[in-house]
Specification:
The chain is an alpha/beta fold. The chain has a domain of about 150 residues. Strands 1-2-5-6-7 form a five-stranded mixed β-sheet, covered by helices on one side. Helix 3 runs parallel beside helix 5. It is globular, with a radius of gyration of 19 Å. The N and C termini lie far apart (about 45 Å).
Length: about 230
Amino acid sequence: MENLLKPLSADGNVPLLDWPDPRDARLFPPGDPLTPSNPRRPGQQDIRTGGNPGGPVSIWYHIVLRNGTNFTIAANNTVGALKEGKGSGWDGTPADGQRILDILRRLPETDVQFGTASSGNTDFNGWRDHVYYLEALRPKIFLPGHAPVGASLQYYSGFLATLRLMEQPRGNHWVGFPSEEWPSIRWLTDPSDTLKPMVFDVNDRAWDSHGKDRRIAEFCSGPRRGPG
């Protein structure tokens, strides 16, 4: 457990077990490549970014509705090494990572998080930092992105295994994340599931939280408008 909470490249004692399903080639036969060919085929896209994996900027949205239950949705496109405070183009310190986690814990309570299920960081830390995000945000529902066809099932397996591994506290290294506090994980496979519309009733009382008013006042200007 302690080894998992350190950079795995430093000790190598907890390897990332990311094994594909041997049935993948039969279940998911190759189709048209996403990168445009010449001539371009239907559905192909040019998704090149700024030259770095995942693009040069980490995108984070936290959207809070002003009325009703103040339904809140978070979306993040990448996960850095939060414990070490390092990321793409950012050679930070543990204090930087802690600062980010402290901000996440102060945000209005998150109802739904649409977050990445993979990043280049998994080669070093598995899904450790994804669990850091969940523990800080405490969403009610977690929806993954970046879980592509052919890799989605082993991502899901590794994700759950890491949650179980990090469930208990570990001295000063980790506060623990009990299973009763985990979100409902509704796994998605990209693109087959992520292209399907998903609807939430923003006035459902399941999103109610007595702590939202105080947190909204800290981050959002203007008064709350009352019931939706």
